[in-house]
Design a protein that fits this description.
Elements lengths: L2 H37 L4 H8 L3 H8 L7 H11 L4 H4 L1 H4 L5
């Protein structure tokens, strides 16, 4: 394997690994946002208004179609009254109550 072939192979391998991680993070955040919204008896419209985003964007986040910026994660945590890590931690998604 030449140096160029190795670099291309390594780049593809890293890209695949990062893509898998990103999908998992989106899924965790999606589950946590939905769980917290439902626990707080908020509609998507309520959450969208409180977070100052469009309702369709909330839907896309909850369905893990969009990545969420760090700024929006911070804003969502503030709206829900939780620490930021609660939106990012996989174990949080499985909780049924606070």
């Amino acid at each position: 394997m030449s140096f160029v072939e190795y670099i291309l192979w390594r780049t593809r391998a890293l890209t695949r690994r990062l893509g898998q991680m990103a999908g998992k993070a989106r899924t965790i955040i999606a589950k946590n946002v939905r769980r917290l919204r439902v626990l707080r008896k908020m509609t998507q419209e309520d959450l969208a208004a409180a977070a100052e985003v469009d309702r369709s964007y909330v839907s896309e986040i909850e369905n893990a179609r969009y990545s969420v910026s760090v700024d929006l994660i911070e804003k969502l945590a503030d709206v829900f009254g939780v620490e930021i890590y609660e939106l990012l931690h996989p174990d949080t998604a499985g909780k049924s109550s606070d």
